[in-house]
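re the bet — no i am not wrong, look at it urself. input seq straight from the record:
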Amino acid sequence: MTLIDQINRLLAPIRALLNSMATKGSVDTVDDSGAMQVLKVVTGDGETLDRLERLQPMGLTSVPQNGDEVIVLALNGDLEHAIAVQVGASSRRPTGLAAGEVAVWRDVSNKIVFKSNGDIEMYASGDNIKIGSTVKKLINEEFQSLFNNHVHNYNAVSGVGTPTVGSTGKPASSTGTGALDTGSFPAVPPTGLLGDGLTDTHKTSKTQAE
């Protein structure tokens, strides 16, 4: 037996241990009812690994679909004490992102993309996007402030002469049960240069956002 043969013989158990430490398989079933998600995985060799704990990154969780790819790490090379360390879904992964871009996704139709230029793009195939109460409150207050303080500017001409510059003023509050005081609204400017009068439909909305 040569020296090389002796070395290979000594290294054979180590190679076998390293080869058995990680394997690839596919998800068969998922149990997401407990604190630790548990998978049933079928390896590439056809072996079934049941009740396989899946480690997920803090702050991000997901439930794989049947057939999704999974990497299994066998502690000490023992599949009886294996854990799932990575699950992928290459068939549904959005592609074509630019260098440096990041996407949080479920599939190509449902994703949030952080663009390299600083933009954030959101895509949803459903009809609704739900926002938590704190964020919703901030958004509502911002749009309410913008709406309640907006005005419409206009140029008006009565007959011939110099155009008159004016604005419609801010919306009035509808707080209370009484009728709105229409006298508080600005008068409709006279007919303009093109002969079309400015009507209530052109004016600032008469009611504030409450």
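see?? Residues 150-202 form one domain. told u. also The radius of gyration is 33 Å. so pay up
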